[in-house]
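<context>
A single protein, sequence plus fold
<entry> Chain with its tokenised backbone below
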Amino acid sequence: MPATNRKGIRLLLVDDEPHILEFLELGLMNEGFEIYTAADGESALAQYRENQPHIVILDVMMPGMNGFEVCDAIKRSGNQVAVIMLTAKDEVEDRVKGLTLGADDYLVKPFSFSELLARIGARLRNQFPNLLSEVAYGPFRIDDRRKELIYRDNVLELSPTEYELLTYIVMNNGVVLSKSLILDKVWGYDFGGEENIVEVYIRSLRDKLGDKEHRLIRTLRGAGYRLDLP
């Protein structure tokens, strides 16, 4: 679990399922975030206007005003805000619609709490870097303002792409990451090269980490890579 100063980072949770809302509220409060909740679209917009959250975690399927309508209204407000949409449907149409309306990320239920934390961390790094101090994950420390990644108190000499790749892997500690997913997140959707480029960069990172036996960045044949922090 990353350690960082999250005081003053405001999150709005919107879901009509009480047990999900309570689970997320308790978990994210324990992580140090300032949490607001809403169980429907109208209440969500009222909370949004009153509290000006940095990140809105927004369920798609709600009675009355659905998540797409709420996302559209929030993004039209003109304020700087990140929206992570939650849905029980793994359908391309829903994902495209949400992203078209300005959603910044997308999670399909059921999802792990650690994955949600990673997505929140990514949005903060990308859209609110001034809110974050140095973030620690086990023996790793990430200072995104300086674009430095420290491992066991040593600053790693990394190219810009190596920095983005290792940061992405570290922030998704314990999650299996396929080559195609890594390409999308690090190189971008319009990358026209071969998936083997990921292997080349992983090999370079292992060399720089002294991970000769692949105990830190593990290869799962046919699935991808997983970081196992000690």
The two ends are 12 Å apart (CA to CA). The helical segments are 18-30, 41-51, 67-76, 92-100, 113-127, 160-171, 179-187, 196-209. The mean pLDDT is 88. The longest strand covers residues 82-87.
